[in-house]
Design a protein that fits this description.
By secondary structure, this protein is α+β, with helices and mostly antiparallel strands. Helix content is 26%, strand content 35%. It contains 5 helices and 12 strands.
């Protein structure tokens, strides 16, 4: 890995994307910051960072042969699986992925992922993957659904070790994904949070009961409603309440 370390930055993803426009980035370039002041999640949501206890970094991966644009969601899925695999190695229990890319331990969010792809024509030629991970956080004021590796496991972690292990795992997973994309779908669905469980959803201002049964090839969430209809939802079209 080619690692760039910064004392503070608004967003590691924004920094890495801007850098990629100025120079030919080496495949596997990683930007790590000690303080991220404007971390972003999907669709502009905010990620809260705690200096010395949280981990924020972004990785750049180039796809030489490209990934079909209609398969780009599975880049996000592949990264999610690699994060889970890494956290399992550190002994974090009850891991799952809340569609599309929140990593959960039990019913609480541990890690957020932001994937921003670089598209040329009908192919994704590269991707910038941002990771926000709660490592040694002790409390989360006004964030009842958030947790950390320390809270989930009762163990204090070496942040540098977590970073190096996770960054390497993500890059390895993206390299493998380019040639083994078909395996990602099945594994991702196996790790879906609340899959095959009756849950309460909100969509178009209405509440309804349903079950998550999988994800479409385009990355849409597949939900079976009470009247046994199969509905597809894109990002931000549906919210899982319980």
């Amino acid at each position: 890995m080619n690692i760039i370390k910064l004392n503070a930055i608004g967003s590691t993803n924004d920094y890495l994307k801007a850098l990629s426009k100025k120079t030919h980035l080496a495949d596997g370039t990683v930007v790590l910051t000690q303080d991220q002041t404007k971390g972003r999640g999907q669709m502009g949501s905010q990620w809260v960072y705690e200096v010395g206890k949280s981990l924020a970094f972004s990785v750049f991966k180039r796809f030489v042969n490209g990934i079909r644009i209609d398969h780009q969601f599975w880049i996000t899925a592949a990264v999610s699986l690699q994060v889970i695999k890494c956290l399992e190695q550190f002994g974090i229990p009850q891991l799952s992925v809340k569609w599309p890319n929140d990593i959960m331990t039990g019913d609480k969010k541990l890690c957020g992922i932001l994937v921003e792809n670089q598209v040329q024509g009908s192919l994704v030629k590269g991707t910038v993957v941002g990771i926000g991970l709660n490592v040694n956080n002790d409390t989360f004021e006004n964030l009842p659904k958030a947790t950390s590796m320390k809270i989930a496991s009762g163990t204090h972690f070496d942040i540098d070790e977590v970073f190096e292990t996770l960054a390497a795992q993500i890059l390895l997973g993206l390299h493998q994904f380019a040639s083994e994309a078909n395996q990602v779908n099945e594994l991702y669905e196996e790790h879906l949070y609340r899959k095959d469980q009756i849950s309460v959803f909100s969509a178009q201002g209405k509440l309804f009961n349903g079950m998550i049964i999988g994800v479409s090839k385009e990355g849409q969430l597949l939900v079976e409603t009470e009247d046994e209809k199969l509905e597809k939802f894109r990002l931000k079209e549906i919210r899982l309440l319980n």
